[in-house]
């Protein structure tokens, strides 16, 4: 019988690439990870890893076993969800992740609703970039997270997690004056300075793609991943910025917002199979209510 914990180690090796990275992510020593994987190979009866010096890679059999491990682990999540649904009341710790603008605009109201309706839940929040949140979900460091993606930077489907979109809204051009050409608002500032997030950040990458779609490479004067800072710089005449609506909840005077034909999506993401867990379902319901409140507020002005 194959051991589930060892299957999880093999799956993490498939994603992280090195035994050292697996050990660091799951709080093992590298030697312990190596020993567990060696035992798994004996249990499987076929080589799962190819070793080249200090590096390892999965064999064809190892990759097949990882595919099965994904289904096994999702099935266990579903079993835990079914058992939790059979209990009376929600208790225990719910570890939540969120990117900064969602943590600021959506999460507080959702936490208030969860605390009111399910006082037995201990709610713990960590700020995460969406890419890192998926890693934390897969490794068990988070139970659910608010994540985002953009039209021009779609996030590929991940076999270990699943997402439900709870908010779709237009990306915004923030500038100190209205675009000269309403039909090409971003291109109206092609010769100007830009305030963008760093390229490794999804929003920063999306902003660059928006400029490229308008036919130019932005001249980046300032880089910040903090939307209030970007808006303050726009208000100070330092350039233009691109951001999702969630990032423009507190607008400085003198900033003009122009909706673009590019959408940003916010999702509730959790491990595959865990969607029916009562605590995850309660979190998703609370987020949806928070989104309704947020949308009602934006309709009446930021």
From TrEMBL:
<dbReference type="InterPro" id="IPR036390">
    <property type="entry name" value="WH_DNA-bd_sf"/>
</dbReference>
<dbReference type="InterPro" id="IPR011991">
    <property type="entry name" value="ArsR-like_HTH"/>
</dbReference>
<protein>
    <submittedName>
        <fullName>LysR family transcriptional regulator</fullName>
    </submittedName>
</protein>
<dbReference type="InterPro" id="IPR005119">
    <property type="entry name" value="LysR_subst-bd"/>
</dbReference>
<dbReference type="Pfam" id="PF03466">
    <property type="entry name" value="LysR_substrate"/>
</dbReference>
<dbReference type="GO" id="GO:0003700">
    <property type="term" value="F:DNA-binding transcription factor activity"/>
</dbReference>
<comment type="similarity">
    <text>Belongs to the LysR transcriptional regulatory family.</text>
</comment>
<keyword id="KW-0804">Transcription</keyword>
<dbReference type="GO" id="GO:0003677">
    <property type="term" value="F:DNA binding"/>
</dbReference>
<dbReference type="GO" id="GO:0032993">
    <property type="term" value="C:protein-DNA complex"/>
</dbReference>
<dbReference type="InterPro" id="IPR036388">
    <property type="entry name" value="WH-like_DNA-bd_sf"/>
</dbReference>
<keyword id="KW-0238">DNA-binding</keyword>
<dbReference type="InterPro" id="IPR000847">
    <property type="entry name" value="LysR_HTH_N"/>
</dbReference>
<dbReference type="Pfam" id="PF00126">
    <property type="entry name" value="HTH_1"/>
</dbReference>
<feature type="domain" description="HTH lysR-type">
    <location>
        <begin position="2"/>
        <end position="59"/>
    </location>
</feature>
<keyword id="KW-0805">Transcription regulation</keyword>
């Amino acid at each position: 019988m194959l051991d589930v914990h060892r299957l999880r180690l093999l799956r993490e090796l498939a994603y992280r690439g090195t035994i050292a990275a697996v050990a660091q992510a799951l709080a093992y020593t590298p030697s312990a990870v190596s020993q567990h994987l060696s035992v798994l190979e004996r249990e499987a009866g076929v080589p799962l890893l190819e070793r080249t010096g200090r590096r390892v890679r999965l064999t064809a059999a190892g990759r097949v076993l990882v595919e099965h491990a994904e289904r096994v682990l999702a099935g266990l999540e579903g079993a835990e969800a079914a058992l939790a649904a059979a209990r009376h009341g929600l208790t225990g710790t719910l570890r939540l992740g969120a990117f900064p603008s969602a943590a600021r605009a959506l999460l507080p109201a959702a936490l208030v609703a969860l605390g009111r309706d399910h006082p037995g839940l201990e709610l713990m929040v960590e700020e995460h970039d969406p890419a890192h949140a998926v890693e934390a979900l897969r490794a068990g460091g988070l139970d659910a997270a608010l994540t985002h993606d953009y039209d021009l930077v779609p996030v590929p489907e991940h076999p270990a997690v699943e997402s439900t979109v709870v908010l779709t809204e237009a990306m915004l051009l923030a500038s100190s004056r209205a675009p000269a050409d309403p039909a090409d608002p971003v291109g109206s500032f092609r010769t100007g300075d830009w305030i963008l997030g760093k390229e490794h950040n999804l929003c920063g990458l999306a902003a660059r793609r928006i400029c490229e779609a308008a036919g130019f490479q932005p001249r980046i004067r300032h880089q910040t991943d903090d939307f209030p800072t970007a808006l303050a710089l726009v208000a100070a005449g330092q350039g233009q910025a691109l951001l999702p609506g969630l990032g423009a909840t507190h607008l400085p005077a003198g900033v003009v917002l122009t909706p673009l034909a590019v959408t940003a999506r916010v999702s509730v993401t959790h491990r595959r199979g865990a969607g029916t867990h009562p605590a995850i379902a309660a979190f998703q319901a609370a987020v949806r209510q928070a989104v309704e409140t947020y949308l009602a507020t934006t309709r009446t002005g930021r």
